[in-house]
Design a protein that fits this description.
The complex is a heterodimer of chains A (318) and B (300).
Chain A (H helix, E strand, L loop, with lengths): L2 H26 L3 H9 L5 H11 L5 H13 L13 H36 L4 H13 L4 H15 L15 H34 L3 H8 L4 H13 L1 H15 L3 H6 L5 H10 L3 H29 L1 H8 L1
Helix pairs in contact in A: 1-4, 1-14, 2-3, 5-6, 5-8, 5-11, 6-8, 7-8, 8-10, 8-11, 9-10, 11-14, 13-14, 14-15
Chain B lengths: L5 H12 L15 H19 L38 H37 L1 H15 L3 H11 L4 H28 L2 H8 L4 H18 L2 H17 L11 H8 L8 H28 L6
Helix pairs in contact in B: 2-3, 2-11, 3-4, 3-6, 3-8, 3-9, 4-6, 5-6, 6-8, 7-8, 9-10, 9-11, 10-11
Classes of the chains: A mainly alpha (318), B mainly alpha (300).
GO molecular function, one term (chain A): dipeptide transmembrane transporter activity
Family (chain A): Belongs to the binding-protein-dependent transport system permease family.
Protein name (chain A): Peptide/nickel transport system permease protein
């Protein structure tokens, strides 16, 4: 990929970032009354509400508010919570590791299960193994998190007593207790990822295995396992890597249900709690943070793709 | 849902044209059992949810029996799926909750389908700044993880059927825009479109008469998948307590209510969980089969 192409992609996503943050600020400034009521309580007089609105700049136009928000955000200041008076950035850094750990652990579990399943299915397309795994994965794609999580809790935590029902042990309390509290929620998140990864890798593997160089390798007498792992797996894994990066970004905002159910102190439960307590500033900051990280990650994947796959590089040049 | 089977039609014409057997044998589409079951389940849920006020079940907000009666036959229709912590009939709540999920999914999906297809046609056909504006807004909306977008909308609105439907519509418009835009671009430079333009057809006419009929089946075949994802999104919101306010039942809300009594009354979670799963699974199966038939870009 040319330098110009890369720059164009980056510029494009910067524009998207501006648009996204503007949407967040504009959307949440639609309810100006609620901010003052949160701070002053329900018994506030109309005069004090008006005074506070003036002080917080909520009477300015959306564009002025956005400009103020943006300049502050670029200085690393996403405002302070209306309820706890803590800076939003501080709260985000506190909560981020939990969500990040959940997302990464879920991806590791998903890969660990999906890759062997995909290889087994692609080795003999149309076989019993193939049809069975594809039936399972299309079924598990239809299980939403709010269905999967309580059912896993029921069977694995309550019936078999393998995991705690809820709660979080920080990594500082040791890796054992930490994993014990993180595994079940991570597995609940991984369920849908397993199916998506398995489907994608299987399709790619099947089409790679039809290539001439695979036939050549087989004709040379290499074992099917060797051909599968050394010749087929690597060129088939590009779309999987892309999906992996994109879905990791999505999981930063996609662990809401699981975090709430297991009462884990992550970003998702922060958003939900701030919404129920009408702490608009925190919602604004966290949502903008998640969206910007997501866009940045997608752009990185888009740009980095050319580095991974020589075929894309050649096509771009031609 | 009735569909015209093009292959069968051709077969019919060929068979009538002469006394000989058709040269090309009629391709019989294998009717998949799981897709048949999916249509049946969906029909069952839709009919029961639509007719629930006429059925001999009690209302969703009154006690129909002793609290926490376990599911079982023999105690009448109300107690078939048991009762919840307040003695309300789970069957009745499932059916009334289904009304919310289905109406929200269907209305939001259809409205988004219409708006999204229209915007996509404009972007794909006119290109230039029209395309740039529509694509940037679409990209920006897609930059939010879906649930986060819904949550931020619900942060500034009072939860009601209307705001929920509007939020969900906004959520899925971008997917339809992308689909319709990509398909429009594929058809835009075809010969028959150019011919129409050379014959003096105006842009609105070309879009309406030449491009839309070709784009519509592909985009519409995604509708069941989108409705499935909308039902999931609605369920997630109600699970978090940010959906339709109580006492109106919803599937997500029932699971959230039941999760505290998983220990001793697991059916309170399992019953709505199975219903959600079967409905979403049925819609996905139907969507996959329609997509295999009408979407020429679908590879698998």
């Amino acid at each position: 990929m040319t330098l110009l192409g890369t720059l164009r992609k980056v510029a494009r996503s910067l524009l998207v970032v501006l648009l996204v943050t503007f949407m967040v600020v504009a959307l949440l400034s639609l309810a100006p009354g609620s901010v003052a009521t949160v701070i002053l309580g329900p018994a506030a007089t109309p005069e004090s509400v008006a005074a506070l609105n003036e002080e917080l700049g909520l009477n300015d136009s959306v564009f002025v508010q956005y400009w103020d928000w943006l300049t502050n955000a670029l200085h690393g200041d996403l405002g302070t919570s209306l309820l706890t008076d803590l800076p939003v950035t501080e709260t985000i850094w506190e909560r981020l590791p939990v969500t990040l750990e959940l997302a990464l652990l879920a991806q590791v579990i998903a890969l660990g299960i999906a890759v062997p399943l995909a290889i087994a299915a692609a080795a003999r397309p149309g076989s019993v193994v193939d049809r069975f795994t594809s039936a399972i994965s299309s079924a598990s794609l239809s299980i939403p998190a709010f269905v999967a999580a309580p059912i896993l809790v029921y069977f694995l935590a309550l019936q078999l007593d393998l995991f705690p029902v809820s709660g979080w042990n920080d990594l500082s309390e040791g890796i054992g207790p930490n994993l014990e509290s993180a595994l079940l929620p991570a597995f609940a998140i991984a369920l849908a990822e397993i199916a998506a990864f398995q489907r994608l890798l299987r399709t790619d593997l099947v089409s790679t295995l039809r290539e001439d160089y695979i036939a050549a390798a087989r004709a040379k007498g290499m074992s099917p396992t060797f051909v599968m792992l050394r010749h087929a797996l690597r060129p088939s894994s590009f779309s999987l890597i892309t999906l992996l990066a994109i879905s990791t970004g999505r999981l930063l905002g996609g662990t809401v249900i699981v975090e709430t159910l297991f009462s884990l102190p992550g970003l998702g439960s922060l958003v939900v709690n701030s919404i129920t307590s009408r702490d608009v500033v925190v919602v604004q900051g966290v949502v903008a943070f998640i969206a910007v990280v997501y866009v940045a990650l997608n752009t990185a994947v888009d740009v980095g793709y050319g580095l991974l796959d020589p075929r894309v590089r050649k096509e771009a040049r031609a | 849902m009735t569909q015209i089977d093009y292959l069968d039609q051709t077969g019919g014409v060929l068979a009538e044209s002469g006394p000989h057997e058709p040269v090309v044998p009629v391709v019989r589409r294998r009717r998949s059992l799981s897709v048949g079951l999916a249509y049946s389940w969906l029909a069952l849920v839709v009919v029961l949810a639509a007719l629930v006020p006429l059925l001999p079940v009690s209302d969703f907000d009154i006690a129909a029996g002793p609290p926490r009666t376990t599911p079982g036959f023999g105690d009448g229709l109300d107690l078939l799926l048991g009762t919840d912590n307040f003695g309300r009939s789970v069957l009745s709540r499932i059916l009334y909750g289904g009304r919310v999920s289905l109406v929200v999914g269907l209305v939001a999906g259809t409205v988004a389908f219409v708006i999204g297809t229209f915007l996509g046609l404009l972007a794909g056909y006119f290109g230039r700044w029209v395309d740039a504006v529509i694509t940037y807004v679409t990209d920006a909306l897609l930059a939010f993880p879906p649930l986060i977008l819904l949550l931020s909308i619900s942060a500034v609105t009072k939860p009601s059927l209307f705001t929920l439907t509007v939020g969900l519509t906004i959520l899925v418009i971008p997917s339809f825009v992308r689909l319709s835009r990509a398909n429009t671009i594929a058809w835009r430079s075809r010969e028959f479109v150019r011919a129409a333009r050379n014959m003096g057809a105006t842009s609105p006419r070309i879009i309406r008469r030449e491009i839309l009929p070709n784009v519509l089946p592909t985009v519409a075949s995604y509708l069941p998948l989108v409705i499935a994802s909308l039902i999931v999104a609605e369920g997630s919101l109600s699970f978090l307590g940010l959906g339709i306010p109580a006492p109106t039942p919803s599937w997500g809300g029932m699971i959230a209510d039941g999760k505290d009594s998983l220990d001793d009354a697991a059916y309170l979670v399992l019953v709505p969980a199975v219903v959600v799963f079967l409905t979403v699974f049925a819609l996905n199966q139907i969507g996959d089969s329609l997509r295999a038939r009408f979407d020429r870009t679908a590879g698998d």
